[in-house]
Design goal:
Blueprint: H1 8-27, H2 34-46, H3 51-58, H4 62-74, E1 78-83, E2 86-94, H5 96-120, H6 123-141
Antiparallel strand pairs: 1-2
Helix pairs in contact: 3-4
Length: 142
């Protein structure tokens, strides 16, 4: 008997719920709070940014981002430097300690995921996941 093709709305619902569970499970691994890790990750990927640029990118209020940056700065994970073109503005950048924490946290979470992939999926299922990742990438870029 052929399998029924799910409606796009049903597929969207199932995908959202499943990805949400996977993300929450990975976030359950030890590490800094998500809001801090998100800022560190963005600075690592995109380089120095102003607090207003970080807030806009993360869809946060500027005041909330300023507090997150203050906390990261107090822990030595980011530093600020004046904008050479506008002394009223500062750039936030990742410190060596922030980069180290970010890499360690990513490695720990990827280690959990690697073990889960090896434990829960056989070789054929992992190959199927390779194709699914390409499709998810297309959706993410749309």
């Amino acid at each position: 008997m052929p399998t029924r093709e799910p409606a796009a709305a049903e597929l969207a619902h199932d995908l959202r719920e499943t990805l949400g569970r996977l993300v929450r499970r990975m976030r359950a691994e030890p590490g800094p709070p998500v809001s801090r890790l998100t800022v560190l990750g963005r600075l690592d990927r995109e380089g120095p940014a102003s607090i207003s640029d970080l807030a806009a990118a993360e869809r946060m209020r500027q005041q909330s981002m300023a507090q997150t940056v203050r906390d990261l700065e107090a822990d030595g994970l980011v530093s600020r430097r004046p904008d050479p073109d506008d002394r009223r503005r500062a750039f936030v950048e990742l410190t060596a300690g922030g980069g180290d924490l970010l890499r360690a946290t990513r490695a720990q979470r990827e280690s959990w995921l690697t073990a889960a992939l090896e434990r829960e999926l056989d070789a054929g299922e992992r190959a199927l996941l390779v194709d699914a990742i390409a499709l998810l990438g297309r959706l993410a870029d749309s």
